[in-house]
Structure formats: structure tokens, C-alpha cells
From TrEMBL:
Protein name per the record: ABC transport system permease protein
Predominant location: membrane
Subcellular location as annotated: Cell membrane
Organism placement in taxonomy: Bacteria, Pseudomonadati, Pseudomonadota, Alphaproteobacteria, Sphingomonadales
Membrane topology according to the record: Multi-pass membrane protein
Pfam families from the UniProt entry: FtsX, MacB_PCD
Species this protein is from: Sphingomonas yabuuchiae
Keywords: Cell membrane, Membrane, Transmembrane, Transmembrane helix
Limits of the ABC3 transporter permease C-terminal domain: 257-370, 710-821
Membrane-spanning intervals of the chain: 253-273, 285-307, 313-335, 347-369, 389-409, 416-443, 468-488, 635-653, 704-730, 759-782, 794-820
């Protein structure tokens, strides 16, 4: 036998079913591959569920939506020619009980054809369609908030309705997007009874089609025919673009975090393999003495490592598959759809490929080193100077590492972001490695302390066989992640404490008639005399052209140009709105107010490459209006006041039918009283408590923070694995040191104290570096990604850093306890 067959025979004889010596390799690959498999499978499961249920979630094969109006006869005829049509209207409203308690709702009027797909089901099991003109189906959230049940009476606008049932399943709920309150479904006739639809009222009309035609072609033909009418179209393959985009982005981000964790774990793999091969020193020596070549030795241990890596990868894939339904059970209410048990080949194959390539990349140097050292050197003892694999080991490592980068960049929608993320990870590792090398060099040149334990601890940093670089990397990664998470969380909390309570209004009011603005203000102040009230005209419109470009002609939306996706809130003002700062151009004066001018957000202007004087066209109520750009503004989005991407001059939109929106700034305890005072006098006005909106936002942010924390926790575990690997790799040298010290009269306590001092010195040095790296990363995330102020709580960060340092040092010291149990006689015979 020769070659691979002989290598496998030798490898199989030495392998243990308990994976003795290779458990760290198994653990690291299990953690990394399991995380990647779970993240990828979850994303695919949710994406597949969204695609499979597309027509149900959308409510049709195709949807046309427009604000503040219904389709005119030619538009409706074009839809009906393409298929069966269902019409719905949706608007913000207030539900009022017989006792006078109120709650904001999303009032939805449906026709007899609704739903085209799926079933509208009540909690009592009934499958229903549109209610009669005096009945309403309500969501569970509304029933719980108002403590009402079937048969009770609710008022919307000026009309009373009897609750006919509680909704258990609204088939197109996810496709409706974010709402300020639970749903209440009435018929078209019921909506007419409320009197809520008036000129200028904010509502959205949706027309869903069940068609056998090609949905994309039908949509494009409709858009070309009615290009200036402001229609927004969706097909069943993008029934919930917001949910799909959120899932895709979170999956992409978490995949990169998981990949970074796998790379970090790869360092632990390398350390663990070095430790394993060090323990096989005598076996390798015997193979060399008996004539084994370097290539055969490398093949034997490569096959062993591949066998164990295969088991670790397989276990990780199984854990990833099982994790998907468990996540669905644990946080099913958070996810857009509930994922079940699924086997997604693509993410599983990617996770396995990543795991195998990472294992090969980090095993290459110790494998090459083990194969090339002569038998005589192997038999000289643990302090023999051994090569680290040289350029051959580095070459093999790069050959396995480059495909990892290629896979990461080729399987993401944003390769630039992925490259920056991986580059930052690699840069952090490079900095820590450089610091480890510098620590060894500086320790060698420092004067020796007179006390024996500190002197031994200092020399341990650079003695032969020391793993100072690996320990610095392991400690640095863990502490940097602790500081990063603490700085991000405390900064976000600081922004919330500083900005939201001080500047957020207590109430929003929508659809205030302009001619009754004075009565509205008087009603509010009759209950809350000190209330500060701000009103703005509010309407909805779609950007249809900018500069010389028509939006309909774009193949894709430019990065940062989110305002081109669908309708946006529009307003006009004579003066610069609060919370805005001019960055270019100037505000219109008295004469210019009568012209058609617009001021836009500076970030949108940059994304669209706009200049002062360029034209901007919007479609409002089915008609196009073109204005000239007069200025750019920086907007304080975190004030929770009225912030508009586009603010027009009065001459541009003043003649468009519209209502007012209002913010009411007052003590939150007066909110209910103000709402009760307003609704009888302004039945068409919707009042929304800002506290409820903030609660929804905080829930979403909390869910995202939890996902990021869990992913970062996997990276922390990988960092701990690196620390354990570094300790294991240095065990032989540390055993030699401990035995020699014991022979010379040292006690176990003294040996342990020496190693504790060594780890404490490293933690103190690395702690400062981790503070800089972690705080720098936190600053970038907070200020550049979240665009918040940098408001970290340094006391919390330092406490977190100290705690993390104590924990990691304790892990390091605990990892050396087996060394203390080594018997001098047995250890000396093995040296």
C-alpha cells in the first residue's frame, strides 16, 4: 500500500471515536457552520414562504395603488380588461366605544370580491367576505385594547357599527405593510356612511387583480399608459417588498457576522491542530524513522483532520436545519411568516463549503510544519526550534482562504459592503497579531523584575514555545466585541433618553380640515392650555421625474434614493420648517412663494446627483406638478416632528385639495383627555399617541438588537475557543515549565500565580487596545450607519471591559490547571 490508501490506513488506526485532542476543532466548526446554516436556512425558508404565498399576501396576482383618489373610468376599464378586480380603500381612523374610549385603527373598506385569494377567517371559525354596511370585523388587538366583543358597538367617523366578529386571519395583512393600529374591516357602503372621505382626506385605494396574463407585462403596460397618474404597482413575486428586503438585509448581515465568527473560530482550529500535532510528536518521529516521507505524514494527519472536520460540519448542518423551526416557535410573532422544518440546499452547501475551506486554511501551516521536520528534531524535546510551515504552509493556507473571500463576495447582493466587513475583520486580526509580536519584542528588552514570580511571568511572554500572539488575538477579540456591543447599546440608549422625551410630541392628528384649524387649536387648549400645536398641509404624491430622468425609465433605484419607491408625504411652507437646516441654495421670499419651487433633503440630492435649479416632478391626485429645486436641507429625523423629504413653496401645491396634520406637544398624561375632546367635534380626524408608535419602533429595534447580539455572541464563543486553543497549543511547553519549577521547589500556588500574572499583563495591554478598537467600531456603527449622536456611557463600557477581562483571564487560568496536575516523574520521562 502507498499514497492515500496507506495514509488512510494509518490515520484510521490513530483516530478515536471520542476525538481526543481534536474536540476543539470539532467545536469550532460546529459553532461556525451551525450559525451559518441556521442563518442561511432561516432566510431561505422565510423568502420561500413569502414567494410561495405571494398572491395571498398581496391579495392578487397584481396590485395597483394610488393615494387620495379612486381610479377613474379609463383606469378601471384597463384593469378589468386584464382580469378580475377587487377594490379596497385604507385610511387611518379612530374607533370609539359606547363608553367613549378610543383607539387608532387602520380602517379598511373592501368590496364583495375581496379576498381574491386566501380566506378572511374569524376566531369562531367563520370564513367571511365583506360585512354589511352596518357591521365591522375587527382585529384581535383592537378587541383587547378596548375590551369589546362580538355584538358591541363601535363608531367610526359619524357612523355606528356592530362588531360582527374578531379577525383570526387577514390573508393580505403582511402585504399591507406597517400600520398605526389594528385593522377594522368594513364594506364600501360602510365607509361611505362614516363621512371620513372628504376632499383632501388621506386614504389609499388599492386594486388587486386575479389574472392569467403575465403580471409584470401587464403592470408595465399600465404604467406606460398612465405614466403621470402616480400609480404604484406590485406583482405577486414581490408581495411584501419591505418584509423581503428586511429579511434579505438581516440575513446578509448575520451571514457576514457568522462568517466572521467562523474565521475567528478558524484561529482556534489552527491552535487546536497545533496542539494535537504537538502531542503526536513521538508518533510522527517513529513514522519518519521508519521511512515515512513528509508528504505521507501530512496526508495521514490531513485525513484525520478532514474526518473530524466532516463530523463537525455535519453536526453543524443538522443543528442549522433544526434551528429554523425552533426559531419560528420562539419568535414566530416577530417574523413576517412562520418558517417550518426545511432543507435548503444552497445555504447548507455554502455553510459546509465555508467550514471546510476555513478548516483547510488554518490547518495548512501546522500540517506542513509537522511533515517537513526531520525525525532527529522531533526526538529532541519540546524546546526544539521548529519551523512554522514556512512559505509552503502560507501558500496552502492562502489557496484555501481565497475561495472563502470569493464565495462571500459572489453570493451577496452588496459585494462592497461584504468586502468592507471582511476587510475590517481581517484588519482587526492583523492589528492584534502585530500587537502580539510587539509584546514579545518589548518584553524581551524590558529589565527583569527582582521578584521571582513577576520575572517568570515576564519571561513567559517571549520564551521558546510561548503562545503570546495567539493569546493576544484571543483576548483582544473577546474584549473588543464586549466593548463594541456596550458602546453601541449605551449610545443608542443615550440618544433615546436625550432626543425622544425632550422633543417628541405627545399626539399626532391627521385630516384636520384647514378651515377649522382655529377651532382645532381652541379645542386642544381647552383641555391642555399649555399645549404647543404645530400644523402643516399634508398630501401624498409620487416622484415621477427628476432632472432629465423619468423614474419609470430606471432599471433600478439608485442607492440612497429610497424616496423614489412609492408615494411620499408632501407639504408646502412659506418659512423654513423647524428641524431643517439649509445646506445649499436659499429659501423663497415673498415674491418667490408664488412660484413653483421645492427644497429637498441633501442626501436624496446626492443620491440622485441633483443641482440647484434642476426640475423635480411629482404626481398628486393623478396630475403632474413640476417645481424647480431652490435649496437642499439637512433634516433632523430624530425629532419625531414633521420631517418631509420635499417641501414645496405655497405656489406649487396650495391649490391642491388637502387637509392639515398636527403635532401636539404637552404632558403625555393629558393625551386621552385631548383625544376625547377632539373626536366629537372632529369625527374625521385621527389622533395617534406617539407613545404607541415609539413602542412599535422600540420593539422592532429590540428585535434587531437581539438578533445582532446573538450573532455577536457566537463570535464571542468563537473568541473563547481561540483562547482555549492557544492554551492547548502551549500545553507541552507549559508542562515543561511547571515540571522544572516543581523540581526546583516551586509550589502549585506559585506556578498558578505566575501564570495568572502573565494573563493579567496580557489582559491589561490588550484591554487598552480593545477599548480603542471596540469604541472606534461602535462610533462608526452609531454615527455612520444609525446616524445618531455618539453618546456612549463610559462607566458601563469600562465596567463591561473589566468584567470581560476578569472572565477571560479566569478562563485562561482555569485552562492551565491540567498542567499543574502533571507528575514530574511522568512528564520528565516523556520529554
Amino acid at each position: 500500500m502507498s499514497g492515500w490508501a496507506l495514509a488512510w490506513k494509518l490515520a484510521r488506526r490513530e483516530l478515536s471515536v471520542r476525538f481526543r485532542g481534536l474536540r476543539l476543532l470539532l467545536l469550532c466548526l460546529f459553532l461556525g457552520v451551525g450559525a451559518l446554516a441556521a442563518i442561511g436556512s432561516l432566510g431561505d425558508a422565510i423568502g420561500g414562504e413569502l414567494a410561495a404565498r405571494g398572491r395571498v399576501l398581496l391579495g392578487g396576482d397584481l396590485e395597483f395603488a394610488v393615494s387620495q383618489r379612486r381610479a377613474d373610468p379609463p383606469e378601471l376599464a384597463a384593469m378589468q380588461a386584464a382580469g378580475r378586480v377587487s377594490e379596497t380603500q385604507r385610511m387611518q381612523s379612530m374607533a370609539v366605544t359606547a363608553k367613549g374610549t378610543t383607539a387608532p385603527v387602520q380602517l379598511k373598506a373592501v368590496d364583495a370580491a375581496y379576498p381574491l385569494y386566501g380566506q378572511l377567517t374569524l376566531t369562531d371559525g367563520q370564513v367571511v367576505r365583506a360585512p354589511n354596511a352596518k357591521t365591522v370585523w375587527i382585529g384581535r388587538g383592537l378587541a383587547e385594547r378596548l375590551a369589546i366583543k362580538k355584538g358591541d358597538v363601535l363608531r367610526f367617523g359619524t357612523a355606528p357599527f356592530r362588531v360582527g366578529g374578531i379577525i383570526a386571519d387577514e390573508p393580505d395583512r403582511l402585504g399591507e405593510g406597517f400600520t398605526l393600529g389594528p385593522v377594522a374591516i368594513v364594506s364600501r357602503g360602510g365607509l361611505d356612511r362614516t363621512g371620513l372621505i372628504q376632499p383632501g382626506s388621506l386614504y389609499e385605494s388599492k386594486y388587486r387583480l386575479a389574472t392569467t396574463h403575465d403580471s409584470s407585462r401587464t403592470a408595465k403596460a399600465f404604467e406606460r399608459r398612465f405614466a403621470t397618474a402616480g400609480w404604484e404597482t406590485r406583482t405577486r413575486d414581490r408581495a411584501s417588498p419591505g418584509a423581503s428586503r428586511f429579511v434579505a438585509r438581516m440575513a446578509e448581515f448575520l451571514t457576514l457576522v457568522g462568517l466572521a465568527a467562523l474565521v475567528i473560530a478558524g484561529i482556534g482550529v489552527g491552535n487546536g491542530v497545533s496542539s494535537y500535532l504537538e502531542a503526536r510528536r513521538s508518533t510522527i518521529a517513529m513514522l519518519k524513522v521508519l521511512g515515512a516521507t513528509s508528504g505521507l505524514v501530512a496526508k495521514v494527519y490531513l485525513l484525520q483532520l478532514l474526518a473530524v472536520a466532516g463530523v463537525g460540519i455535519l453536526l453543524g448542518l443538522m443543528a442549522g436545519i433544526v434551528a429554523v423551526p425552533l426559531v419560528g416557535i420562539a419568535v414566530g410573532a416577530v417574523l413576517p411568516v412562520a418558517p417550518g422544518l426545511t432543507i435548503a440546499p444552497r445555504p447548507l452547501a455554502l455553510a459546509a463549503a465555508y467550514g471546510l475551506l476555513i478548516a483547510l486554511a488554518f490547518c495548512a501551516r501546522p500540517l506542513v510544519a509537522a511533515g517537513k521536520v526531520p525525525a532527529a528534531a522531533l526526538l529532541r524535546g519540546v524546546l526544539d526550534s521548529r519551523s512554522g510551515g514556512g512559505w509552503r504552509g502560507s501558500l496552502w493556507g492562502m489557496a484555501a482562504g481565497l475561495p472563502v473571500v470569493a464565495l462571500a463576495l459572489s453570493t451577496t447582493e452588496r459585494p462592497g459592503f461584504a468586502a468592507a466587513f471582511l476587510g475590517a475583520t481581517a484588519g482587526t486580526l492583523a492589528v492584534l497579531v502585530a500587537i502580539g509580536v510587539a509584546v514579545r519584542a518589548v518584553a524581551r528588552r524590558l529589565p527583569r523584575p527582582r521578584r521571582p514570580l513577576p520575572r517568570l511571568a515576564l519571561t513567559a511572554l517571549y520564551r521558546p514555545g510561548s503562545r503570546t500572539v495567539s493569546l493576544v488575538v484571543a483576548l483582544g477579540l473577546g474584549l473588543t466585541l464586549f466593548v463594541l456591543l456596550a458602546s453601541i447599546r449605551t449610545s443608542i440608549d443615550g440618544n433615546i433618553r436625550r432626543s425622544v422625551p425632550a422633543r417628541a410630541p405627545a399626539l399626532f392628528a391627521l385630516d384636520v380640515p384647514p378651515e377649522r384649524e382655529a377651532a382645532f387649536r381652541n379645542t386642544v387648549r381647552s383641555v391642555a392650555p399649555t399645549a404647543r400645536i404645530a400644523t402643516v398641509p399634508l398630501m401624498r404624491g409620487t416622484i415621477t421625474a427628476y432632472g432629465t430622468t423619468r423614474v419609470a425609465d430606471l432599471k433600478s433605484i439608485p442607492d440612497g434614493a429610497w424616496a423614489l419607491r412609492g408615494e411620499r408625504g408632501l407639504t408646502f411652507a412659506a418659512t423654513l420648517p423647524p428641524g431643517s437646516t439649509l445646506t445649499a441654495g436659499r429659501w423663497w421670499d415673498g415674491v418667490e412663494q408664488r412660484q413653483s419651487l421645492v427644497s429637498i433633503d441633501e442626501r436624496l440630492a446626492k443620491a440622485l446627483n441633483l443641482r440647484i435649479g434642476d426640475p423635480l416632478t411629482v404626481s398628486v391626485l393623478g396630475l403632474e406638478r413640476t417645481a424647480r429645486i431652490a435649496s437642499f436641507r439637512r433634516i433632523a429625523w430624530d425629532t419625531l416632528g414633521f420631517n418631509f423629504v420635499m417641501v414645496f413653496s405655497p405656489g406649487a401645491l396650495q391649490d391642491v385639495p388637502h387637509n392639515l396634520a398636527a403635532t401636539i406637544d404637552m404632558p403625555a398624561t393629558q393625551g386621552s383627555a385631548v383625544t376625547r375632546a377632539l373626536l366629537p367635534r372632529f369625527p374625521s380626524t385621527s389622533v395617534v399617541e406617539v407613545g404607541g408608535v415609539l413602542k412599535q419602533i422600540q420593539d422592532v429595534v429590540g428585535q434587531m438588537a437581539t438578533a445582532i447580539t446573538v450573532a455577536a455572541g457566537i463570535a464571542v464563543l468563537a473568541g473563547i475557543a481561540v483562547l482555549l486553543g492557544a492554551i492547548a497549543a502551549a500545553r507541552a511547553a507549559r508542562t515543561y515549565d511547571a515540571v522544572m519549577l516543581k523540581v526546583l521547589g516551586a509550589t502549585r500556588a506559585q506556578v498558578l500565580a505566575m501564570q495568572a500574572i502573565e494573563y493579567a499583563l496580557l489582559a491589561a495591554i490588550v484591554g487598552l487596545v480593545a477599548l480603542v478598537l471596540g469604541a472606534g467600531g461602535g462610533w462608526f456603527v452609531v454615527t455612520r450607519i444609525f446616524e445618531f449622536e455618539w453618546l456612549p456611557d463610559w462607566s458601563v463600557i469600562l465596567a463591561t471591559l473589566t468584567t470581560g477581562a476578569v472572565v477571560t483571564v479566569a478562563i485562561g487560568v482555569a485552562g492551565t490547571l491540567p498542567v499543574l496536575r502533571a507528575r514530574p516523574s511522568a512528564a520528565l520521562r516523556a520529554l
